[in-house]
Amino acid sequence: MADIRLEGVGHSYDGGRTWALRPMTWTWRSGRAYALLGPSGCGKTTLLNIISGLLSPTVGRVWFDDRDVTGVPTAGRNIAQVFQFPVLYEEMSVYNNLAFPLRNRRYPAAEVDQRVRRVAQLLGLEEHLRRRSRRLDPGRQQIVSLGRGLVRSQVAAVLLDEPLTVVDPAMKWTLRSKLKEIHRDTGHTLIYVTHDQTEALTFADEVVVLNQGAIMQAGEPSELFLSPAHEFVGHFIGSPGMNVLPAELVDGVVRVGDAPVGRAVGQAAGKAAGEAAGELPPGPVRIGVRPEFVRLDGGVAGLAARVTGVDRMGAYNLVHARVNGHTLIAKTDASAAFEPGASQSLRFAEGRAFLFRDAVRCGVIEPLDGRGEA
Ligand code: ATP
Predict the structure, then answer these.
(1) Does ligand 1 have an atom closer than 6 angstroms to the CB of 194?
(2) What structural domains and CATH numbers belong to the chain?
(3) What are 149-187's pLDDT values in tens digits?
(4) pTM of this prediction?
(5) Which residue's CA lies nearest to atom 9 of ligand 1?
(6) How far is CA 302 from CA 198, 249, 286, 367, in A?
């Protein structure tokens, strides 16, 4: 295993006119489980293929620890890759499919047997070991492919490109927790590509959010949820995503229309409040606040809001409210009774409403009097 460092790595498929992957510097640390999360076309597969050596980057260098592998083909990189669809020898038994990557690298027979049985046990394939792979359904074939990716001990990293697409939804939950177990067992560096936030958040130690060929933010799932660094992360993670409300910054106070909502404190992502930017210049800003942190509780100090609709989700309600011509969503208790047309006072949970400029986080809203909620 190795730290995998991308140094100024970027890729263009059209001679530099557009970047599928914008030049970036980033390290995948050895032994961690990463999810690479982003919408279709954002560059996930391009990035994975650059790490595995299937693709040579247009610019930049790829390092495995202190070894420059930029020009090294896939075979010389010691990477295991699992694709969206099963890649296996259909005429071979499941056992032989799992053993193949090991025999190919001349692992001793006893170790082959021990590793095959261990991975088969973890993936629930024990009773299928003697079956011909062709006879399995596509979901189980994909599990065998997953096993082939995970069976080796000495790999720089295991790259998984949307590996659970063909697996049925009920099985996905089981397999994700199996993958976590296997990760704990083997200590492999895993990079798991997905466009599904649930998949990313339940699987990874660290989630790397990619959009339009650039890393927007990387962090633990809770960090991405509680402290989005970019409006995109706010929208893409969470269900529903972060609300955005246009506001104005005047003399250090955030105002929505005529109403003051709090004090603006400069705060770049990943820094403590006040550490980064200090005073924010006056002018337009956008408030970003997740539905979980919008309070509709009728207090006197809040923003005037009118309820326009309620989605009853069973476990909770989503209350839609108009504020200064914009709609915000509040996630409330299922038992909370809000009726369309009702007037409410709306507030934000303290420290959970952020300020954005050019979609990038620049600050946080703090209470005007330094106490209580904003
Ligand atoms: P998906 O989730 O749909 O697989 P992705 O995030 O993996 O998408 P990539 O497949 O890396 O994204 O594609 C990034 C961009 O590069 C897209 O605009 C895509 O159209 C383009 N692209 C990918 N492969 C090629 C190629 N071989 N030739 C030209 N353009 C390509």
Answers:
(1) no
(2) 4-228 (3.40.50.300), 232-366 (2.40.50.140)
(3) 999 888 889 999 999 888 888 888 888 888 888 888 888
(4) 0.90
(5) 43
(6) 33, 17, 18, 11
